[in-house]
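Fold description:
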Amino acid sequence: MLTSRQRLLTTLRHEEPDRYAWAPLLDDYFMHGLPPEQAAAGIPAFLRSIGADILLRHAPSYQIGLDGVSVEEKKEGNLTKRTILTPLGPLTETTEHYPGAETDYVTEFMIKEPDDYDRVCYWLTHQTITPDYAATQKAIDEVGEDGLVTVNGGSPPLTAFFRFLPQTQVMYEFYDHPERLDRLAEAAHAFTYAQACAAAA
């Protein structure tokens, strides 16, 4: 009989396992909806309790440092207001937490004027990404032979546009000011590429 780890690896290699793997795709959104004691125990413990093969998503794989940039956060009820201070000027962003959905939505986007493009690009290109092997190994040790761990490799570059600008504004900028989006795309790509390299390492 295979362990869950062996079963998942066998399946991913397109070989025949001893049985079909059952690995529910759970994340923090799901866990926040559970009773507090179950949520506190963590995803691996919950999956073990229901007899599942563990496929743990988004284990930490790197740390992000700031170079010449600082971030301030202030919470007011369900709102989180962030200010990113750069040498080119400040950026502001507001997100709202929806308890039922257990997620945050951007209600005030960072880019509100042309100069904000330069500030966002500065922020993106002045973050340092370093592998965090200890954090990754901790997740691997916690899961053990009960499953597999996938590491966080950052978001796709396109996602950056929809954090910094509303989707409708991206469409307008695409036609009116494509050079601005090109600069943002280049900075976002460099940042996400560094994250992917750290995850691969």
